[in-house]
Design brief:
Blueprint lengths: L44 E2 L5 E4 L6 E4 L3 H21 L9 H12 L9 E2 H11 L5 H10 L11 E4 L17 E4 L1 H7 L9 E3 L6 E3 L8 H5 L1 E4 L4 E4 L4 H13 L5 H7 L10 E3 L2 H9 L1 E7 L1 E7 L3 E8 L6 H13 L6 E6 L9 E5 L5 H11 L3 E7 L1 E4 L2 E4 L2 H42 L1 H9 L4 H9 L2 E3 H20 L4 E3 L2 H9 L7 H26 L1 H19 L6 E3 L16 E7 L3 E6 L13 E2 L9 E8 L3 E6 L3 E6 L13 E2 L12 E7 L8 E6 L3 E6 L11 E2 L9 E7 L4 E6 L3 E6 L13 E2 L9 E6 L5 E6 L3 E6 L13 H4 L15 E2 L10 E7 L4 E6 L3 E6 L13 E2 L9 E7 L20 E2 L2 E2 H4 L26
Parallel strand pairs: 11-22
Antiparallel strand pairs: 1-2, 2-3, 4-6, 5-6, 7-8, 9-10, 11-12, 12-17, 13-14, 14-16, 15-16, 18-19, 20-21, 23-24, 23-26, 24-29, 25-44, 27-28, 27-30, 28-33, 31-32, 31-34, 32-37, 35-36, 35-38, 36-41, 39-40, 39-42, 40-45, 43-44, 43-46, 47-48
EC number: 5.6.2.2
Enzyme class: isomerase
GO molecular function: ATP binding; DNA binding; DNA topoisomerase type II (double strand cut, ATP-hydrolyzing) activity
Amino acid sequence: MADEDGNDENEMDETGENGEPAQNGEPGQTGKGDTSDAGDFTPPVKAGGNDMIYTGTGAGAFRMIDQPIEDELRDSYLVYAMSVIVSRALPDVRDGLKPSQRRILVAMNDLNLTPGAKRVKCAKISGDTSGNYHPHGESVIYPTLVRMAQEWNMRRLLIDKQGNFGSIAGLPPAAMRYTEARLSPVAAAMLEDIKLDTVDYTPTYDEVRTEPTVLPSKFPNLLINGSGGIAVGMATSIPPHNPTEVCDAVIALVENPDLTVEDLFEIVPGPDFPTGGVICGRAGIRRGYKTGRSTILVRGKCEIEEKKGSRSRILIREIPYQQSRDGVVKKIAELVNGDRIKGISGIRDESDLKEPVRIVIELKRDADPEVVLNQLYQFSPLQSTISMIFLALVDGKPRELTLKEMLMEFIRHRVTVIRRRTQFLLARARRRKHTVEGLLLALANIDEIIKAIRESRTQPEAKQRLMGIQCPASMMERALGDIGFKQFQSERGVADSYPLTSVQTDEILRMRLSQLVGLEQEKLTDEHAALLAEIIDYLDILANQSRIYGIIKEDLEDMKRRFGDARRTRISMEELGNIDLEDLITEETMVVSISHQGYIKRTPSSVYNTQRRGGKGLKGAKSDDEDPIEHLFVASTHAYLLFLTTAGKVRWQKVYDLPQLARDAKGRAIVNLLNLEKDEKIAECLAVRDFDQEGYYVAMATRKGLVKKTPLEQYSRPKKGGIIALKLRDDDELVDAAVVGPGDEVILVTAGGMAIRFRESDSRPMGRNTSGVKGIGLVGDDEVVGMVVADPNATLLTVCENGYGKRTPFGPNALGEDEEASEEETSSSARYRTQKRGGKGLRDIRTSERNGKVIGIARVNNDDEIFMMTSKGKIQRIEASDISVIGRNTQGVRIMNVDDGDSVIAVVRVPAEEESEETEQIVTAPSTPTTQSVGSDEEANNEIDSDVEIDDADGNADADDASDDE
């Protein structure tokens, strides 16, 4: 070990022949240099063979211990940690107080600051506490005193305050030279009987006086006022409880110690915070009571008020425990200014003395108050998680306790206090009885007593003479009475006469002459009888545990009567985990678009105003020839999007998680939202709200005419990397998907204008990792462009790339014709009759040069609206009723004007029930002339081979029906 100069200490270790320090100077000197000046530095010398190193000379000498620093750090830190645990941070399970709190109350008791006394300055209290008991400074003591006087922190105050002690708003208290305090009635009840030897005392830090290690505390303070503290390696967090409920629980446990935690849970349903609030669910409370460790969710008390003009506001009347009012307001303002919460127009703090918490939150006209309230719960201190850690000192050691164990420890403490108090009172009563007996004997034999005193020259001589007087048993019996004499004989034994004791003679010598009057003799006789009764009662208490339990119950009934009140915190039966994000999102209809290069966005459907048929539409996206829009659909913000990819996988995303952008924005790269593999692209999207629908399937159709259905529930468990949805064959891709149920029929439509309708039951359910079976037989290079579920009450909208299209009734399902349908509606040219799966189908629309190829289909009703988008990003929104309903095998009509070089690439239905409730302005655009250069609407109704059904030999493709289940 080297010294500060880097020299090895062994070089200074010079000893004599016998191992003693060198004698050529003072001990520890090496003999080098001048040693005459005692103030010079003396290098340390190690005594031979010892770890002790001596340094210095004379009065300045001291010693050092040669010890590895890691050992010293470990040992010293352990001492510090135990000091923090036992003497600072954790409460005692018996009185629920930390040492600092207990010392403040004891110091105030020393100052006689009872509830009826005049209050004194807190500076005086802090000074006495610091000087007499707690040597940690007044700046540490005063905040502890202040907290015990704050009604928003303590369920029952221990300090009766006067002055500014802070506020629930978070304002600090005034300096201790301005504030005054005294003990509250609760604190007085906790200190009661402290001078009756009910608790142990220990010397204070300076050993000048002693202090109690615990208070007698007939008030169950730990559970009622709670406690919190961070020690070394452990922490405690005991929430406050209702005084009435806790007292009832202790009484019930005294009456029946076999009660379980579940039984006590019915009496104490949960914490009761001084600030009120709402506890969400009972599971966390039950777990905390049973194990001693849990968490609970606490919300402020809020009300939604409806105002005139479809406006609402939220009133906050209570805040969670240990949250400041100003802190809540400030955080909400930050959330509003940061656009985290968008439905709030203003915040006002209307709190006053009558109503300490009243925060008014004004909402915007279109804001959903339930959504805003859920956002406040999620992001602001209006909802907080409170720990339940029932850690306290039991017999001086930290221990986690259940609810029952905590109450049993309090009962055990009260039994000890009552027993010690009774023993103290018994001893005091016996001493007083002994003294009174001497006085009664003196009065009964007063002449001899006076004679002995008069014959004595000094007090010691008088005492000796009095002690030599023998009192006959008969005299004793007359003086004490029958009961008193029997008790006397039981204590002193049976004898003919009894001498006076030293204690009795001292009291006789101090007796005044006025006590010789007859009235005083009667008082002594009555006092002796009362003392006898007290002694008998005390002995009975000590002999019968039931008497002690009865006293505990009486004390608790008194505490409940004096300090009990109604519950402030409401306990909700609704169990809340983390708030579902959907509760924070307003449900509204969104238009979702995905471009060819994989850019996605969502836009509220309300931004697209309805136009007349034939309009040119509004700019819906910044797109170009190199990145046209491929997918366009409408979905609720709360719906799941199933992204089916070219790799045959499906991935999940909530609509509200998609980027919401302006109508003409390009969008965000979808690869930033989904974990797509290399060269993997989105093939189709499907919006689903509920996966748990028995008998429902996800039906899929590929470009090569294959179809497959898989139970919907198989897609209900999202995975980060996605799951297999469809096994695609070479040169094939997914083109459409839909949810089908029992009795449904589907229609496939090809780019060449062919359509086939068949029952969903024709395709058996398959697993996810399969290819499917043939749905339609394709001719040449024809390919499937869409699939819909047939609806007898709806129409099939078919749209071609040049903006032409039509609506045609589906016609009834194969289960039966509509008896009320007209002959025209049931004719083969006016509907799509059901065929067998795998056939080539019927003619749907003529794909002439005017029309171009079919690009998409949709199932629509008269009150629906239609979105159409071109490859250059133009979107038109029209009413479905503006599109003529005509026969199946027809030309169609112009729906949208398409510029040269542009083409329609997508069509989507906007269901009427998903429309915005607000009235939208209809933008009128120039209508397309009824007469077109390529033919009129009348020509569009000319049917071509209307009754020709195109099938293969047997109407099926049995050779291709084999599935590819893996």
